[in-house]
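Bit of a strange request maybe. I'm writing a small parser for structure token strings and I need a real example to test against, not something I typed by hand. Could someone generate the tokens for this chain?
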Amino acid sequence: MASQAQPGSGTRIPLSRERVLGAAVKLADEGGIESVTMRRLAEELGAEAMSLYYHVANKDDVLDGIADAVAREINQAVDRTEVPSGAANWKAAMRRRILSARQVLLRHPWAPGLFETRTTTSPAIIQHIDALVGLMRDGGFSYDLAHHALHALGSRALGFSQELFDPGDGTGSGDGTGSGDATATMPADMARQFPHLAAMLTEIAHDDPASTLGWCDDQTEFEFGLDLILNGLDSLRHTS
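Reply from user aminoacidic:
Good idea to test on real output. This should exercise your parser:
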């Protein structure tokens, strides 16, 4: 079995699927998902590239594995969250669990994009969604309304939102430092053609890059949208 030397100890640490996936998560955290290659993984682990294939089938298997690892981290985080009991507290419980999931994704900002590319859904993701449905049922939701609620929440159920604009499409700087950057490079004729967007982008600003998982998906905007949905669902649960 392939193993890795532990620095300064002279001992060899056996490779395992868990260690390979842990190294892949570390590479993605440091350099983005594009940095996760079999060669880079082997270098990170101090092993021969071919030895990795005893533990992972190929790069797709690695990507499926780290998507599942992040999903399991989400479940561990929300399980540590104190969830109020009782129907009246369903909204606070939902909000707390979703924002706990978001904190995990902020530690792994590459994960939302990876989730969207996977062809199979991690069982850990299904577990998270099942728990959200359980909270809604405790709150008096019918299964029909809970189904509508999941569609309304969309990716917000996992702690991120799919934004209208893509950071690479020329509408913003993509660095998460502020929407006002978009107007700095906007041609004058475009500003004249789209005056309302130009005025809006000049006025708004995002001051906390660490809270961003997309072009405008910062913490304030995420919570604004989440609260709108939860408040609307709260009104519907009394009439469904």
